[in-house]
């Protein structure tokens, strides 16, 4: 059944991206186009309800930073969330990351029943990390929250579709003064926040159509709500036309140009690290379950690797030992010396029952700001010193007037 569902997902993605043609594909495109009209009406109506106050937005009384985008997947939010959380923590802030936990598995029924009988909230936030220990695996936490928790030892990571609930929980139980919303641009119940919106310069609006006919969650005009526009994958691209288009949609938000920079390779099962030069002239296989696998594979080629085999799974696919073993064996049959995956995929790779025939590495990628970081620092500093400061922070500043943190995005 799982394979049938994934095959249908793959067919739908190929139809949406216009890589599949024929009578069935044409009919599905027409049907999806009709659904996208209904979806557009729903998006507009929901925004109107919040703008008119018929649906309530809640302030949380502390610094709230939302990192999001207009399209589904592929813009690289997680490295930016990680960098912001690390830099804010380094500046003395107590940070919690609030994630929706996309495709994470809910706790067992009896565990939820026990929590309800104990008087706890019926669906409390899942604590992926308490800032000291990682408490959940990737299946219960979700890929991105688990990866963030593993890479940020001093940051609290919570998972819940209700970010107002998890924000209050983080403030009450972990004494935080800064909340970072992972994938939060469309989350309207939480107000008084700094909205950072990512734009992929290689495909800023997909095919220009809304879900489910296209990849847009909202029309491009929604960018007028953004406070800062992050332009990703900027290196070597002429951005003048895109910037002009974005400036018409949002005349006030500054641009931050950045690139996702590969740093090193790490062996999935042993933790052994190798420099990027290891890939020069090396025959490799690639395995991934992400929204845009072609971007990952092209990145390996730019690093000097020769790609002799690739296996693409659906986004957030949970690998089995048999699947990974087959990828390794087929890569070896094509004379590959290693198999490379992404860091996000690596957290879903299970232990193998036998010794792998080839080493399996993930590519560590970090965000690097090219231009505009100074303006982002100013916006963050303004938000830190603004009316959204928590009562905890006001008390600390009363004790020590010079304690205000200075955020540096190094």
UniProtKB/TrEMBL annotation:
GO CC annotation: plasma membrane
Keywords: ATP-binding, Kinase, Lipid A biosynthesis, Lipid biosynthesis, Lipid metabolism, Membrane, Nucleotide-binding, Transferase, Transmembrane, Transmembrane helix
Pathway: Glycolipid biosynthesis; lipid IV(A) biosynthesis; lipid IV(A) from (3R)-3-hydroxytetradecanoyl-[acyl-carrier-protein] and UDP-N-acetyl-alpha-D-glucosamine: step 6/6
Biased segments, Polar residues type: 401-410
Stretch list, region Disordered: 385-410
SUPFAM superfamilies: P-loop containing nucleoside triphosphate hydrolases
Positions with a binding annotation for ATP: 71-78
Coiled coil: none
Annotated Pfam families: LpxK (PF02606)
GO molecular function: ATP binding; lipid-A 4'-kinase activity
EC number from the UniProt entry: 2.7.1.130
Catalysed reactions, as listed in the record: a lipid A disaccharide + ATP = a lipid IVA + ADP + H(+)
Enzyme type, top EC level: transferase
TM region(s), chain numbering: 27-49
InterPro entries: LpxK, P-loop_NTPase
GO aspect biological process, one term: lipopolysaccharide core region biosynthetic process
Presence of the UniProt keyword Protein biosynthesis in the record: no
Cross-referenced PANTHER family: TETRAACYLDISACCHARIDE 4'-KINASE, TETRAACYLDISACCHARIDE 4'-KINASE, MITOCHONDRIAL-RELATED
Family to which the UniProt record says this protein belongs: Belongs to the LpxK family.
Function, in words: Transfers the gamma-phosphate of ATP to the 4'-position of a tetraacyldisaccharide 1-phosphate intermediate (termed DS-1-P) to form tetraacyldisaccharide 1,4'-bis-phosphate (lipid IVA).
Protein's name in the database: Tetraacyldisaccharide 4'-kinase
Organism the protein comes from: Candidatus Methylacidithermus pantelleriae
Lineage start: Bacteria, Pseudomonadati, Verrucomicrobiota, Methylacidiphilae, Methylacidiphilales
